[in-house]
Structures are given as structure tokens and as C-alpha cells.
Write a structure and sequence with these properties.
Blueprint lengths: L12 H6 L20 H10 L2 H6 L1 H15 L3 E3 L6 H5 L4 E4 L3 E4 L5 H5 L7 H17 L5 E7 L1 H10 L7 H9 L1 H25 L3 E6 L7 H22 L5 E5 L4 H11 L3 E4 L5 H8 L4 E6 L1 H6 L1 H14 L5 E5 L9 H11 L3
Parallel strand pairs: 1-4, 4-5, 5-6, 6-7, 7-8, 8-9
Antiparallel strand pairs: 2-3
This protein binds coproporphyrinogen III.
Pathway: Porphyrin-containing compound metabolism; protoporphyrin-IX biosynthesis; coproporphyrinogen-III from 5-aminolevulinate: step 4/4
GO molecular function: uroporphyrinogen decarboxylase activity
Catalytic activity: uroporphyrinogen III + 4 H(+) = coproporphyrinogen III + 4 CO2
Length: about 350
């Protein structure tokens, strides 16, 4: 592990940590940091109408991305968009019903896959790239800008089922029944997600995160095939065009052995840890190999008070001296009090 100050100085501390350094203070951002817990987000959301218009209107996407930076001064901004923009830009019909989550027309066989586009619709994703460029231009230099995409496995679970499901049974089932179709769907997502991330880097993203929110339902062999291998191919394709591209993987629910294998196979710069991770064992296995990001339970943040303080202190102690990026173990929930977010940031920053 490199010492603070031996190089990387002048870079945003978020990027120092991703380069394996231990910055002079711990960088902090939150998954879903722009969202319904903020009144200023709800106001823009109301103006935009539906959620997808918010994602595709650069004025709105720029504004809601910057809101949590203005309010809290996080060390990283994350592009406001959604992982389901990729299937949408491949031609899948997609809607977000209020309070119900996403609904897609399911893609369950080779003929339905063949009806989709080979490449992402520029009419959609160019608007995302425009938002990235404008966000980068407006952000303070010390704030890193993160782009993102969903991992192929997680995106495929929504495409096959047409909605979120508790255990991703539709995608798991089709991967057994029709592995050739499922592999072709994953291939399409690997290629288009890599292009999507390359476009975000070219527009000004400093690093990207690959969200594999449903990695935890896969057995070890399926985890290699549907989580590790597609992420490995995306990382390689992105770095072939953006040398040194900084990439974080968040395989939610992965075991420590799965996580270790993923870091080894993909060469990602950082891993996101959910709240169930055994921090000391993870640090022992992976500290010095990549940055460790996470893993405060979002429910501790809702609870606040001593429970929150204790959870933060334990986390900071376990990762003291490691290349650590403070974050939650999953997205912030809409009912979270803003005062608790302020309390968390102050405690992490030691003020
Ligand atoms: C699985 C997944 C999705 N989207 C995402 C994931 C992976 C991370 C995770 O597991 O949470 C990722 C995502 N979604 C959103 C972002 C924006 C950036 C950020 O602040 O982190 C990011 C990075 C905005 C959003 N994406 C969504 C909202 C809420 C939409 C609203 O304003 O009504 C936001 C702010 C909608 C969404 N989008 C998705 C679902 C299941 C839902 C409905 C559930 C919900 O409402 O929280 C798919």
C-alpha cells in the first residue's frame, strides 16, 4: 500500500483512493445520493413529469446530479441516470410506474433479442453524454465525476422478467433452459455497456461504477460466468480505448471468495461492499489490491443517533489506513432524514 503523499497529489481524493493511495482524508459519496429523500429532487422530478424524461433531459439531469454536491459537498458526484437506459436505448420499451418500479416488455428468447438494436440509439445516449460533459464543466475540480452502468447480469434480470423480482428466478431459469440465448443477451449487454462507458469517459467522467445489484443470487459457477466474465470483458474493452480507465465493481451480495476472484480476474480499481461484508476479512484478502468502498447499512442511516455513530466508528476503524471510500452498502432510502446524512458526513470528516 502506498503512503499518503507519495504521488497522486492534486488529484481528487476519490481518485487517489482508486489509485491505491491513502488520501489525507477519507473520500465520501452515497449510492443514490440524488433522489427522493431530497426535497429539491422531488421538485425537479415533478417538473420533469416521468422519470425517464428526467434522465434524458440534460438540464434536469445536470441539476439533480449537482444537488447533493451543493448541499453536502460529497467528494464524488454520480451521473443521474438509470441502469435501464441501456435496454431502453436497445429498443426495449420501458416505463416507470409511480411506486411500482420499472416495467419492460420481456426479452426471453433469441427472436425477441434479434428484434432489438445491435447498438445503442444515439438519440437517447447522446443526451446522457451531453449531461456528463455539462456536469463535469460545473463541478468543482476536487469533486470526481462518476459515470455508471448496470452489469450485464443485473440488467438481464430486468430484461428477462420485465420487472424487478425477489430472487431473479426468470433470468436464472432461462439461463438453464436456453443458455445460448442467455449468453447472446449477455454478449449484447457486454458490448453495448462497454461503448456506453467509453462514451461517458470521453464526455468527462473520471471513473465509473458497474452495478451488479443481483450478483448475490448466483451460485459460484454462475457467478463466474454471468458476473465475473462479463465485467472482465467490459473492463478490457473500456481500457482498450480509455487507457487506465478507473472502474469500480459493486457485485452486491457476492461472497468474499467471489469478490476476491472478481478483483483478480477483472483488474477493477475498487469494489463496493454491501453491509453484510466482513470488513476485516475483506481487507485482509483485498487491501492493497484495490480500493474498498462501502459499507454502512442504509438502515443505520435511517436510525441515526448513537446507532449511526457506532456503525460509522466501527467502519472507519476497520478500514483505517486502507484505500477506503466511505459509502453505504446500498442506495439511500427515500425516508432517510437529511439531518442524519449531515451527521454522517461530519463524523466521517472528523469535525
Ligand atoms: C437495480 C437498479 C436500478 N437503477 C439502478 C440500479 C442499481 C443500483 C441498485 O441496486 O439500487 C442504479 C441507479 N438508479 C438511479 C441512479 C442515479 C445515480 C445515484 O444517485 O446513485 C443509479 C446509479 C436513479 C434512480 N432510479 C430510480 C429512481 C427513483 C425514481 C423516482 O424518482 O421515482 C432513482 C432516483 C428508479 C429505479 N431504477 C431501478 C429500480 C428498481 C427503480 C425503482 C425503485 C426505486 O424507485 O428506487 C433500477
Amino acid at each position: 500500500m502506498k503512503e499518503p503523499g507519495d504521488n497522486g497529489m492534486g488529484l481528487p481524493i476519490m481518485l487517489q483512493a482508486l489509485d491505491g493511495h491513502v488520501p489525507k482524508r477519507t473520500p465520501i459519496w452515497m449510492m443514490r445520493q440524488a433522489g427522493r429523500y431530497l426535497p429539491e429532487y422531488r421538485a425537479v422530478r415533478e417538473k420533469a413529469g416521468d422519470f425517464l424524461s428526467l434522465c434524458y433531459t440534460p438540464d434536469h439531469a445536470v441539476e439533480v446530479t449537482l444537488q447533493p454536491i451543493r448541499r453536502f459537498g460529497f467528494d464524488a458526484a454520480i451521473l443521474f441516470s438509470d441502469i435501464l437506459v441501456v435496454p431502453h436505448a436497445l429498443g426495449c420499451s420501458l416505463t416507470f410506474e409511480a411506486g411500482e418500479g420499472p416495467r419492460l416488455v420481456p426479452v426471453t428468447n433469441a427472436a425477441e433479442l434479434a428484434a432489438l438494436r445491435e447498438e445503442l440509439d444515439p438519440g437517447k445516449i447522446d443526451r446522457v453524454f451531453e449531461a456528463v460533459a455539462r456536469i463535469r464543466a460545473e463541478l468543482p475540480r476536487e469533486t470526481a465525476l462518476l459515470g455508471f452502468c448496470g452489469a450485464p447480469w443485473t440488467v438481464a434480470t430486468y430484461m428477462v422478467a420485465g420487472r424487478g423480482t425477489p430472487d431473479q428466478a426468470p433470468a436464472r431459469l432461462v439461463s438453464f433452459i436456453d443458455p445460448a440465448f442467455f449468453a447472446a443477451l449477455i454478449d449484447r449487454l457486454v458490448e453495448t455497456s462497454a461503448r456506453y462507458l467509453i462514451g461517458q469517459f470521453r464526455a468527462g467522467a473520471d471513473a465509473v461504477q458497474i452495478f451488479d445489484s443481483w450478483a448475490g443470487v448466483l451460485d459460484p459457477e454462475a457467478f463466474r460466468r454471468w458476473t465475473i466474465d462479463p465485467i472482465r470483458r467490459i473492463v478490457a474493452a473500456v481500457r482498450a480505448e480509455v487507457p487506465g480507465a478507473r472502474i469500480i465493481a459493486f457485485p452486491k451480495g457476492a461472497t468474499l471468495s467471489g469478490l476476491t476472484e472478481l478483483v483478480q480476474a477483472t483488474g477493477v480499481n475498487g469494489v463496493g461492499l454491501d453491509w453484510t461484508a466482513d470488513r476485516r476479512a475483506t481487507r485482509y484478502a483485498l487491501g492493497g489490491k484495490c480500493a474498498l468502498q462501502g459499507n454502512l447499512d442504509p438502515l443505520a442511516l435511517i436510525a441515526g443517533g448513537k446507532a449511526l455513530d457506532g456503525a460509522i466508528d466501527a467502519l472507519m476503524e476497520d478500514f483505517h489506513g486502507a484505500a477506503h471510500i466511505f459509502n453505504l452498502g446500498h442506495g439511500i432510502r427515500p425516508e432517510t432524514p437529511i439531518a442524519h446524512v449531515e451527521r454522517m458526513i461530519a463524523r466521517v470528516r472528523g469535525s
